[in-house]
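Entry 14. Ran structure prediction on the chain below.
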Amino acid sequence: QVQLVESGGGLVQAGGSLRLSCAASGRTFTGYVMGWFRQAPGKEREFVARITWTGGSTDYADSVKGRFTISRDNAKNTVLLEMIDLKPDDTAVYYCAARQFFAAEFNYWGQGTQVTVSS
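Output, structure tokens:
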């Protein structure tokens, strides 16, 4: 059974930084695309970033480009999201997600970690 466990969330002032980590277990993740999503109160869940198995391709939401960086360590089955210059609008629950490279949608999800950015 696939398990994704996020960590690293917390409270930070605007302009600050955080690093989120996602530990994946339960199977080999060869060929899996990993991603981060977030959901703010009263809003729908939105895409933040994704990275391919090799790490050679990444994609970001326009709202986080230049501030967030996604990376992965396949030997450790870990995906990171480095966030700098955080803004109050970044406040949300952040979710790690996984899908096989041929799947249309992410079908494995973590429980989420709260990120709160104060102004």
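Residues 27 and 96 are 16 Å apart (CA to CA). Will compare against last week's run tomorrow.
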